[in-house]
Amino acid sequence: MSKDNSIYSKIIPLVITMAVVVLVGTVITMAMPLLRDDMHPKLESTKEYTAIELEGRNIYQREGCVNCHSQMVRPLTADVVRYGDYTKAGEEFYERPFLWGSKRTGPDLSRNGGRYSDEWQIAHLKNPKQFYPKTNMPSYAFLDRPANAVDAEKSMKALKYPYTQEDIDLVARSTELEALTAYLQSLGADIPDNLYVKVEYSDYEDKMAPMSTVSPETKVAFVDNCAGCHGTEGEGTEIAAPLSDVIPDPVIDGPLFVSIANGIPYTMPSHIGIMTKRRIWELVLYAKELANKKRTVATTTNTDISAVDSGINK
User: Fold this and answer.
1) pTM of the predicted model as reported, rounded to 2 decimal places
2) Are 131 and 228 spatial neighbours (Cβ–Cβ below 8 Å)?
3) What is the pLDDT of residues 103-134, one digit of tens each?
4) Which residues span the domain enclosing 219?
5) Same domain, yes or no, for 55 and 166?
6) Helices 51-62 and 149-159 sit at what angle, rounded to 10 degrees?
């Protein structure tokens, strides 16, 4: 009977050989490509964070925002319609570490920049339930305290981002709320058009709402999504003017539909990704109703005052 002297009969040498082969294969197929430039793409529009944006990013991580908000729009229709263009590898060039997240208790923030004003961002961080009554997001009003310029400078040096003393002085003059807002406004700002899927103005410029009544659900949707800025009765807040000031009378419904659907940069977010077109049309009618109601009250009040003045002057 012949003795088998092949490596297959020798357990230890066989295991070592297999480990070496797997290791070499891993290095060739995974590690070496990481050294190639084309594995680290960068969009031409992508820029390093400024000092105040980076300080805001540090605060974002410190407060655990990444636990509830993702920063990665997947190339799925539902994601793109709701959050905007899908995330590109090149826009993540300066992300250290990546803040992709793995859970969406709150909305994805990849395309947040420019969708709201700075005033809205700060007010929302202080009192999220003012804008979204059903939200689980806690208040971050305690961040209304001086930002740490020393840490900001250390971060800039560690990441080798360019900065000036003026940049650091800006951080020193800012609050943590303002720094966090600066970071949120930077998200997606390097993408030329980071808005949601939009409706075309030309398709709606001369149209009127296809219905004449507003459902109770739409009135609830107004309170849940619009009242934080416009007030529950359209009376306006410190963030937005009364609806009677921004909706003329008479008005064509189509342009108002487009404004609500597409949003207005740095003023109002898009709603086409989170509401049906019918709901938006009904919001148009409800907004007009609230605006006209306020105008009627104002007219009646002015008439009463004029009558009193007239009686006094007689």
Assistant:
1) 0.79
2) yes
3) 899 999 998 888 889 999 999 999 999 999 88
4) 201-309
5) yes
6) 100
